[in-house]
Design brief:
mainly alpha, 4 helices, transmembrane helix, membrane, DUF2231 domain-containing protein, DUF2231_TM, transmembrane
């Protein structure tokens, strides 16, 4: 049951990647809600900044995880996911900085239309990054150990 401990280093990227996904989507929902309920603004800023910062360990662990595939036929698919993740991380670091620097203004950045528009683009990109990561795992079997006993081995 605790076999995962033996593989913790190779599984670090999928573990760390789910934190920014959850935090950034939750922070986005709070930012939208803060327009109606301004008391949520400080919480929205905190969650968005935490989500933005949490992208860094995810990207670093992704860089480490991609090395075994550097010379494989999957290199192109891994690199596509990697480049999308770099761009999305940069966008969220900019958004996190924007949210943090404007948190004490009469109308904090997270409550403005331009911020929410860029945030929406970021969340769409984050969804695409997650989708390409999922395709690497479920479509190409990257990082999968063992065989799913529910699937027939003859299926493509």
């Amino acid at each position: 049951m605790f076999d995962f401990v033996d593989h913790i280093w190779s599984d670090l990227h999928p573990i760390l990647s789910h934190f920014p996904i959850a935090l950034l989507f939750f922070g986005g929902a709070l930012a939208v809600a803060s327009r109606r309920w301004p008391d949520l603004t400080r919480f929205a800023v905190l969650v968005l900044v935490t989500g933005a910062v949490s992208t860094l360990p995810s990207v670093i662990s992704g860089l480490v995880a991609h090395f075994p595939y550097e010379e494989s036929s999957l290199h192109g698919a891994v690199e596509q996911h990697q480049l999308l993740a770099f761009g999305t991380t940069l966008l969220f670091l900019i958004l996190g900085t924007w949210a943090w620097r404007t948190r004490h203004k009469p109308v904090p950045g997270v409550s403005t239309g331009p911020f929410l528009a860029v945030l929406a683009v970021g969340l769409i990109l984050l969804t695409v990054v997650g989708g390409t990561g999922g395709e690497l795992v479920y479509g190409h079997g990257i990082g999968v150990r063992g065989v799913n006993p529910l699937l027939d081995a003859t299926q493509p």
